[in-house]
Amino acid sequence: MKRTNPQILRYQKNNLSFWLCMLAIAADVFHFVLLYESRVIAPDINMGVDIIINIFFLLVVFLASEKSKAHILSWSYTLFALSAIQILRIFYLPLMYYVSGKLSVNGFAFSITLLIISSVSLGVAALINLLRSKSLKNYLKDTEKLPKG
To answer: pTM of whole model > 0.70?
Structure first.
């Protein structure tokens, strides 16, 4: 990975983390559409819970993408947590629908692939934001120690 100059980080936004978060949102939306466009799957309480999880996920990832654009360190940990949640979501609705026969093998594989893409892009965005924000924080701490004038 190319090392970024901390002086430049003061003035540049973290666009790479932002766009990786947008990729995660796009993959999640495609997963959502794939799962709920099926006419075989009847609405139930699990689907309602998954819709609420999905809405929460989309809102928090968008907020995290904006915060990571500003190099805010604490949002890296939120992105790591959201990445783990995406992996755990594989074992909730897609697996349940696959085991019950409501979701085909191809649909299950595509659903898993989209959730993994979303999770990996969030993990990479979190790692990039973590490294860049720590580098910027250390640089700013060092510049404060310099004598004035």
So the answer is: yes
The radius of gyration of the chain's CA atoms, rounded to the nearest angstrom, is 19
Q: 21: which 2 tokens?
A: 């978060």
In angstroms, the CA 24 to CA 19 distance is 9
CB atoms within 10 A of CB 64: 27
Residue boundaries of the structural domains of the chain: 27-140
DSSP structure string for the chain = -PPPPHHHHTTS--HHHHHHHHHHHHHHHHHHHHHHS-SSSPP-HHHHHHHHHHHHHHHHHHHHHHHHHTT-THHHHHHHHHHHHHHHHHTTHHHHHHHTTSS-HHHHHHHHHHHHHHHHHHHHHHHHHHHHHHHHHHHHHHHHHSPP-
Distances (CA, A) of 91 to 10, 29, 112: 41, 18, 9
Angstrom distance (rounded) from CA 110 to CA 120: 15
- Express each pLDDT in 78-94 by its tens digit: 999 999 999 999 999 89
Q: Which two tokens stand for residue 125?
A: 């965005």
